[in-house]
Please model this.
Amino acid sequence: MIEKTIRMNYLYDFYQSLLTNKQNHYMKLYYLDDWSLGEISEHFDVSRQAVYDNIKRTEALLEEYERKLQLLLKYEQRQKHFNTLKMLVQENESPDRIVQIVELLEELE
Model:
């Protein structure tokens, strides 16, 4: 469950500007502020089921945006390459290997 929450938080960070105001409110309260479905439903004066359905549809929408745009995937790849690059620099690795990692980073742009 924690992996899903982390993933949804990342996807929300990348794609929140593509969501409606209601989707933004529900996702922010549920995933970032850790409100329960009941608390959200009470706050907005809607049923718990309506909140649940909206969050599930929004999760699917975020996954669809990621499938098409791959912003999170590219971010994770960049992070991996940056970490490798840091390690290579700390270990005084050959310049050729460092250039290779930099080229991989450039391909992600």
About this structure: The longest helix spans residues 48-69. The two ends are 31 Å apart (CA to CA). The mean pLDDT is 91.
